[in-house]
């Protein structure tokens, strides 16, 4: 087609009268042929992009022609035209209805409505389905605008259509279903403008007149929109009955009619009067459809039942009335038969998608029935087949597909907490099977080999595409299994624990029966023996929780209770002592067993100090030979040693008075181990912390001796920080590098040609490099960070602020705090400055600066993004220690360790409250140290800084906020605003510039971390500005709840509020839905505080409003539209002039009268009606650039694999980053709507 000579569309000369041209009138063939040419050019694969663009522009221009509606009618009615041309005619009508309706006179509107009715009446069987659906959509669009107002006889017209053919019925079903969805179930802005009127009209025409008369006697009887007494619910059920009486198995049109009928019934179930469901016999009729062996009809039937039984706000009588038909023996038998039918050929390697989907939906439906029994056992109707329901739930639980099983597993975790259910004879007989199933499914399927043929894993891979969702799902599944085990142990502790421990003994005895003996070179954290031990330990942990709950609730016979408890403790101790006799050469298995023994010791055997001493002796003597030839094994051995130290400290916290009795012998043993050359500094400090905890937590040691011994250890900390050499070594950045042995780092990198090596992990490190690497590690260990961290943790961990031990520690540390702070602030400052290329490495040649940047770039693994497994990643990192990459890792890792250790120390010092926060000259230097170089940190490292800053801010006592918080909050949010804004701009630029074949893995990782940083920052804003939070530090239960809210201080301090608001305003524009929704809700909650004229109110009406409008019109933000529109509405109410002037300045908003009408409507509307407010805003802004916001969101959404509500619930994780390559089509110039182009 010659697009260069395409003429603009000409008006059809009928004076705008939609009825001037009759069916078959072929006037103005020039226009029709050009439209057809344009459509053919768009769909022709041989067309160039430029041709398609011109054709699209031509067709869009035609939609705006004054006579487009009549032109559209002509095309749509002319069956001699190609279907695509007729469909384009319908889009002309659609454009007129959506974007020109309010400009039409009543007569023009009526003419357009009659046109659509005529189109519906003229549908024919040979018309493509998409044409019939488009006509029904046009009917719905007009109904949303005029039904129950100008259009009063719509119901009569629908009934007349209904009485014609099946394809006329299809139009009616589409209209009824869409109206139900858009008036009640979706956030449709057009329907929202008339939500009340449309809602009343829908209720009126769907509900049988007898039900309305009896149960809604006070309704508006003057509505006058219904036709006939039946109501659509009865008509739909009668139509379904008719379909079921026909040859539905052989006639597709009958099956389609039945499915569409049930879809329409389903759409009404969320809002129809419950009595109407009962009166129309919906449940019984739909169950007949469920019984037919046609899967698509069965799926539609289950969807109807789900929509009934997931309704909210039903009163007890209504719910019982609706539930009764489904709990009869006949209905339960039907459900079991259908479920068994879905299993008849269930094969993961040859799945029938529809039957498998039906299986999953039946499980979700069964979950609803189980929850009804759990929540309202007293309302279960007489004659209900409860044994049948429980049997069905039991069978579904054991389904090989975990996705089928999980809703019922979740249900069992709740059902078993009900005494009525738990004590029933039927359930009692199932306990063994329930326990067996849950124990067997606690294995970590995500760690199975990728080529595993395990059917459960194959189902899992079939159901869940992404690794993050799979991990989240399996985490939830294991949690529910553990819940069931916990409840069952609490119910029958003796029998259940005996069964579980016997099962564990058998597993440990046969651990390597079908495996070769353990060899260090074959070590793997996901080997079969490790996975089996992990699952068994998880089972026992869950069982112990149930046992501890049983202990805490004495029965009616306390003596019998004590006898059982003592007997079980004897059994536990005997089992634990036997297990401690077994030597495990696999460090991962040894670690898991050690942690399990610690759980027994500190929980179930907390009164048995003799076993605690035995276990302590075991930990002091357990030792596996290290072998650095196998890095993964060596790392696991070191991890085992670390865990031993931590578990020893836990024991010391639990049994301090028992350990103090043997303190001298313990001290001798510990000192021997400290003196051993095989013990490293980290272990030495952990051993000292162990002794410190015993002294500190003992209640029998006299106070003077206690304080003297604690001071002796704490003096080591003070002396280490009060050291002139240390002070000199951290006085400047150069000195800091020198003390770490990195003062000649650039020269080393240059001499060894790091710049010229492409793959650092493949380049061996020369001997001088290995020597430098070892020197850096050794020098960093000389800093007093680990000693301070260790003793601080020993001083505060698991202590309440009102305990004697805490008060003792606070007083003793008070002397050390002023000594520690000067040098640790210097360390923080330099460790952050190390990443600042511009400030500290700018003197180097550009190519060497690039090498430094690469040295400072972390390697990290991201679930769902990284192309290797987590274990493979750690193995690769561990195996590259003696390479260039390993050297770079040592450099950045050392600096990061210094930075994060310093953060931890600062956080720990805040636990001493006034002793820390009352230091008058601390806030300024602390803010300077933390934030002056913060922008040089990566998003990942900045997240750690944000975490410690949050603790520093939230922990500040109310009386000291004015002194301490201003520089902290100002510095933090200044840096967050700059960093997050800059990083999002860079990410967006990378994605826009990327090619189709670019590997964007690193960009995806960076974006994922940036999302988390953004959301964490937004969450802090939400906490700080929440008036319910006195002191926001929820981790401290002893906080004074009478303290004034943090937000009162912030609102009273403009210098603090300003950077928070600037950050919040910038965040409206970041491409992270979760963060935008949160910050918009926070901003909206603040508006009521600024109703009086002020700079802040003007800031809301100008800057915040502009950003909200820009985001509202970008396709990415479609899922934030509700919140953004609500924020805009709230801002418009703040001021008469500023928002109006901004709206009038927008492209496409030049019609002053239209804008003023909408603003007046918005201000007059009920402010508590959020949906109406949003709908007015969306309607007002729909004409910007001539593209509907709502439709734009629909067009830009990417297709995703559809999940059920339950699947979304059980796979809930932050959605994996979606990298969209290239630039996305959008609104040209939206970013510079307000004259702020970049």
TrEMBL record:
UniProt biased composition (Polar residues): 12-24
Classification via Pfam families: Exportin-5 (PF19273), IBN_N (PF03810), Xpo1 (PF08389)
One GO cellular component term noted in the UniProt record for this chain: RNA nuclear export complex
SMART domains listed in its UniProt record: IBN_N (SM00913)
Protein's GO biological process: protein export from nucleus; RNA export from nucleus; tRNA processing
Entry similarity comment: Belongs to the exportin family.
Name assigned to this protein: ARM repeat-containing protein
Taxonomy, superkingdom: Eukaryota
PROSITE patterns linked: IMPORTIN_B_NT
Function: tRNA nucleus export receptor which facilitates tRNA translocation across the nuclear pore complex. Involved in pre-tRNA splicing, probably by affecting the interaction of pre-tRNA with splicing endonuclease.
């Amino acid at each position: 087609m010659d697009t260069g000579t395409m003429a603009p569309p000409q008006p059809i000369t009928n004076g705008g009268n939609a009825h001037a041209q009759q069916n078959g009138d072929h006037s103005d063939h020039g226009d029709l042929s050009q439209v057809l040419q344009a459509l053919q050019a768009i769909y022709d694969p041989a067309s160039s992009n430029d041709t398609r663009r011109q054709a699209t522009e031509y067709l869009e221009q035609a939609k705006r022609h004054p006579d487009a509606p009549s032109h559209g009618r002509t095309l749509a009615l002319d069956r001699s035209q190609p279907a695509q041309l007729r469909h384009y005619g319908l889009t002309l009508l659609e454009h007129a209805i959506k974007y020109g309706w309010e400009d039409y006179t009543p007569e023009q509107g009526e003419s357009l409505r009659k046109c659509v009715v005529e189109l519906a009446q003229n549908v024919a069987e040979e018309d493509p389905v998409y044409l019939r659906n488009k006509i029904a959509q046009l009917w719905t669009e007009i109904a949303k605008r005029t039904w129950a107002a100008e259009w009063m006889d719509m119901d009569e017209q629908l009934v007349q259509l209904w009485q014609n053919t099946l394809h006329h019925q299809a139009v009616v079903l589409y209209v009824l279903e869409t109206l139900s969805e858009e008036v009640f179930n979706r956030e449709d802005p057009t329907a929202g403008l008339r939500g009340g009127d449309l809602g009343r009209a829908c209720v009126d025409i769907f509900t049988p007149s007898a039900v309305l008369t009896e149960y809604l006697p006070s309704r508006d009887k003057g509505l006058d929109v219904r036709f006939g007494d039946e109501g659509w619910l009865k008509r739909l059920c009668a139509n379904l009955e008719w379909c079921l009486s026909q040859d539905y198995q052989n006639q597709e049109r009958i099956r389609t009619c039945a499915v569409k009928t049930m879809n329409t019934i389903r759409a009404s179930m969320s809002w129809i009067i419950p009595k109407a469901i009962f009166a129309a016999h919906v449940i019984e009729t739909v169950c007949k459809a469920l019984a037919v062996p046609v899967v698509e009809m069965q799926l539609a039937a289950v969807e109807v039942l789900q929509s009934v039984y997931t309704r909210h706000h039903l009163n007890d009588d209504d719910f019982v009335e609706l539930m009764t038909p489904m709990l009869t023996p006949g209905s339960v038998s039907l459900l079991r038969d259908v479920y068994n039918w879905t299993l008849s050929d269930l094969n993961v390697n040859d799945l029938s998608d529809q039957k498998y989907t039906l299986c999953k939906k039946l499980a979700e439906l069964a979950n609803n029935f189980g929850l009804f029994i759990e929540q309202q056992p007293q309302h279960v109707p007489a004659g209900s087949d409860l044994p049948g329901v429980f049997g069905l739930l039991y069978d579904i639980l054991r389904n090989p597909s975990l996705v089928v099983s999980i809703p019922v597993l979740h249900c069992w975790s709740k059902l078993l907490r009900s005494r009525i259910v738990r004590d029933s004879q039927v359930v009692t007989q199932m306990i063994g099977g329930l326990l067996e199933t849950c124990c067997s499914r606690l294995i970590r399927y995500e760690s199975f080999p990728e080529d595993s043929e395990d059917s459960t894993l194959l189902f899992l891979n079939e159901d869940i595409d992404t690794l993050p969702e799979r991990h989240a799902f399996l985490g939830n599944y294991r949690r529910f299994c553990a819940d069931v085990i916990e409840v069952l142990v609490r119910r029958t502790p003796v029998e259940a624990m005996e069964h579980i421990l016997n099962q564990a003994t058998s597993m440990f005895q046969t651990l390597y029966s079908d495996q070769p003996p353990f060899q260090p070179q074959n070590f793997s954290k996901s080997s079969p023996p490790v996975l089996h031990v992990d699952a068994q330990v998880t089972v026992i942990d869950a069982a112990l929780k149930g046992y501890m709950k049983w202990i805490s609730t004495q029965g009616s016979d306390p003596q019998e209770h004590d006898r059982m408890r003592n007997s079980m403790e004897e059994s536990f101790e005997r089992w634990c002592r036997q297990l401690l006799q077994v030597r495990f050469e696999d460090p991962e298995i040894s670690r898991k067993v050690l942690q399990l023994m610690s759980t027994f010791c500190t929980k179930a055997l907390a009164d048995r100090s003799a076993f605690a001493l035995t276990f302590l002796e075991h930990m002091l003597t357990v030792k596996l030979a290290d072998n650095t030839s196998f890095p993964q094994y060596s790392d696991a051995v070191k991890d085992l040693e670390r865990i031993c130290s931590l578990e020893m400290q836990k024991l010391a916290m639990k049994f301090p008075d028992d350990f103090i009795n043997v303190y001298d012998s313990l001290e001798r043993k510990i000192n021997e181990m400290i003196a051993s050359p095989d013990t490293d500094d980290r272990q030495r400090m952990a051993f000292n912390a162990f002794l410190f905890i015993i002294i500190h937590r003992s209640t029998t040691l006299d106070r003077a001796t206690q304080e003297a011994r604690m001071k002796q250890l704490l003096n080591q900390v003070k002396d280490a920080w009060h050291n002139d050499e240390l002070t000199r070594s951290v006085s400047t950045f150069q000195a800091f590098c020198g003390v770490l042995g990195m003062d000649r780092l650039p020269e080393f990198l240059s001499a060894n040609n790091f710049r010229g090596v492409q793959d650092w992990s493949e380049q061996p490190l020369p001997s001088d490099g290995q020597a430098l690497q070892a020197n850096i590690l050794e020098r960093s260990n000389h800093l007093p960070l680990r000693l301070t961290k260790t003793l601080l943790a020993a001083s505060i961990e698991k202590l309440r602020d009102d305990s004697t031990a805490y008060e003792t520690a606070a007083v003793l540390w008070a002397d050390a705090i002023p000594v520690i702070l000067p040098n640790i602030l210097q360390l923080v400052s330099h460790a952050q400055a190390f990443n600042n290329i511009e400030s500290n490495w700018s003197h180097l040649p550009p190519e060497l600066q690039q090498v430094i940047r690469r040295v400072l770039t972390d390697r990290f693994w991201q679930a769902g993004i990284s192309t290797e497994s987590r274990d493979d990643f750690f193995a690769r990192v561990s195996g590259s220690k003696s390479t260039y990459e390993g050297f770079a890792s040592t450099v950045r890792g050392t600096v990061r360790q210094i930075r994060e250790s310093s953060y931890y120390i600062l956080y720990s010092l805040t636990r001493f409250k006034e002793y820390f926060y009352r230091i008058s000259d601390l806030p300024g230097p602390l803010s300077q140290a933390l934030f002056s170089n913060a922008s040089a940190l990566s998003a990942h490292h900045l997240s750690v800084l944000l975490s410690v800053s949050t603790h520093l801010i939230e922990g500040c006592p109310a009386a000291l906020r004015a002194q301490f918080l201003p520089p902290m909050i100002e510095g933090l949010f200044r840096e967050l605003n700059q960093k997050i804004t800059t990083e999002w701009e860079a990410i967006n630029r990378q994605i826009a510039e990327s090619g189709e074949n670019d590997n964007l893995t690193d960009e995806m990782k960076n974006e994922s971390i940036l999302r988390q940083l953004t959301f964490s920052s937004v969450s802090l804003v939400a906490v700080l500005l929440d008036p319910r939070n006195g002191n926001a530090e929820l981790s401290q239960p002893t906080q004074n709840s009478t303290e004034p809210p943090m937000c009162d201080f912030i609102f009273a301090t403009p210098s603090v509020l300003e950077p928070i608001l600037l950050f919040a305003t910038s965040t409206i524009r970041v491409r992270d839905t979760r963060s935008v929704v949160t910050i918009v809700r926070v901003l909206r909650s603040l508006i009521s505080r600024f109703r009086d004229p002020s700079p802040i109110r003007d800031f809301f009406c100008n800057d915040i409003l502009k950003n909200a409008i820009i985001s509202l019109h970008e396709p990415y933000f479609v899922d934030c539209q509700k919140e953004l529109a609500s924020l805009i509405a709230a801002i418009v109410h703040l001021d008469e002039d500023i928002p109006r002037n901004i709206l009038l300045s927008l492209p496409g908003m030049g019609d002053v009268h239209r804008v003023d009408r909408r603003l007046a409507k918005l201000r007059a509307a009920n402010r508590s009606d959020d949906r109406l407010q949003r709908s007015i805003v969306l309607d007002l802004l729909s004409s910007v650039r001539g593209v509907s916001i709502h439709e734009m969101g629909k067009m830009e959404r990417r297709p995703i694999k559809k999940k059920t509500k339950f699947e979304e619930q059980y796979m809930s994780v932050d959605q994996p980053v979606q990298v969209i390559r290239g630039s996305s089509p959008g609104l040209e110039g939206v970013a510079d709507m307000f004259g702020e182009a970049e």
